[in-house]
């Protein structure tokens, strides 16, 4: 058992190691003559600057009695209507050319990195739900009595685990997505769910088979049928045993979601690439992207640890 002094010593050694690693990164930047510009990054996370509203066509500015601004085109197209703004730049009757600033919106708004983080969280959360459903279904099929169900489950698991996720994303988007007219986001969710579901299925199968056979026999002897025994006796025990590997798989899902950027979904990784080209601060951007991924995966890991402790306390 650790003493108080040994714990403090461990914390001290840890801080020294982290200081060495951070110093190494800093001096590496100095060695390659890199100038850090963290101030460039902030507007791409939360932008507090005014947002210009520009005209999309040539025309005439019209401001009605309610203050609504519209641009009447010179060639009879539909007018550009601007209902929300904070500062009016153009006046009633002004001649407007395409690209001119006609109004501004004050206040803060999320930048591309924050928006990309939200897309990553959303696509990961939705994919996680469907992956669990697929994993439980095919995991139960893996231990079913019917040979047909076992064969189907084995085929699904082996095919999906034996092919790269990147290839599956392309197949789902360009082939299945074309057949069923799926948008990019739906195709990305489908690919991630199918891929992760195969691994969840094997984790569920291993968890079910780790429960002693006598548990099923005891449940059946009490008058339960197979489905009741699975639902009330086997699965609750299997879930407790599978939480640690499931946590690892869910964390992998969040990291694997970065691959959906190849089908032009602006997730955190794709947003990072776009910001690098605009900010000329590649190291700052990628360190920030990595930190945001770490925050999301760390939060998920913490939630699962709390759930694991609560389930173990209920024994």
From TrEMBL:
The chain crosses the membrane at residues 12-29, 117-141, 153-176, 182-201, 222-239, 285-304. Residues 117-304 form the ABC transmembrane type-1 domain. One of its GO terms (biological process) is amino acid transport. One of its GO terms (molecular function) is transmembrane transporter activity. Keywords: Amino-acid transport, Cell membrane, Membrane, Transmembrane, Transmembrane helix, Transport. Its main location: membrane. It is a multi-pass membrane protein. It holds the Pfam family BPD_transp_1. One of its GO terms (cellular component) is ATP-binding cassette (ABC) transporter complex. Gene3D superfamilies: MetI-like. It is found in: Cell inner membrane; Cell membrane. NCBIfam families: HEQRo_perm_3TM. Part of the binding-protein-dependent transport system for glutamine; probably responsible for the translocation of the substrate across the membrane. This is Putative glutamine transport system permease protein GlnP. It comes from Marinomonas gallaica. The gene is glnM_2.
């Amino acid at each position: 058992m650790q003493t108080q002094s040994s714990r403090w010593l461990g914390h001290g050694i840890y801080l020294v190691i982290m200081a060495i690693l951070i110093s190494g990164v800093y001096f590496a930047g100095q060695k390659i003559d890199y100038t850090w510009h963290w101030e460039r990054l902030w507007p791409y996370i939360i932008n507090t600057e005014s947002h210009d509203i520009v005209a999309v066509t040539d025309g005439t500015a019209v401001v009605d009695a309610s203050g609504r601004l519209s641009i009447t085109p010179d060639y009879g197209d539909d007018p550009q209507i601007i209902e929300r703004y904070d500062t009016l730049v153009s006046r009633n009757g002004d001649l407007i050319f395409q690209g001119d600033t006609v109004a501004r919106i004050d206040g803060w708004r999320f930048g591309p990195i924050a928006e990309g983080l939200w897309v990553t969280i959303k696509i990961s959360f939705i994919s996680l739900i469907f992956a669990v459903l697929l994993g439980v279904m095919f995991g139960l099929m893996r231990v079913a009595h019917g040979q047909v169900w076992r064969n189907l489950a084995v085929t699904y698991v082996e095919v999906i685990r034996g092919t790269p996720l990147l290839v599956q994303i392309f197949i789902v988007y360009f082939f299945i997505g074309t057949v069923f007219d799926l948008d990019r986001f739906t195709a990305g969710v489908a690919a991630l769910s199918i891929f992760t579901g195969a691994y969840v299925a094997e984790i569920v199968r291993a968890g079910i088979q780790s429960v002693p056979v006598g548990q099923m026999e005891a449940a059946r002897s009490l008058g339960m049928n197979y489905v009741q025994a699975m639902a009330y006796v086997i699965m609750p025990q299997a879930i407790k045993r599978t939480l640690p590997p499931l946590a690892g798989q869910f964390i992998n899902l969040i990291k694997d979601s970065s691959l959906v950027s190849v089908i032009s979904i602006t997730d955190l990784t794709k947003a990072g690439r776009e910001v690098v080209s605009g900010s000329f601060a590649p190291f700052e951007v990628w360190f920030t992207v990595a930190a945001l991924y770490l925050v999301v995966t760390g939060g998920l890991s913490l939630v699962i640890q709390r759930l694991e402790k609560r389930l173990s306390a209920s024994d």
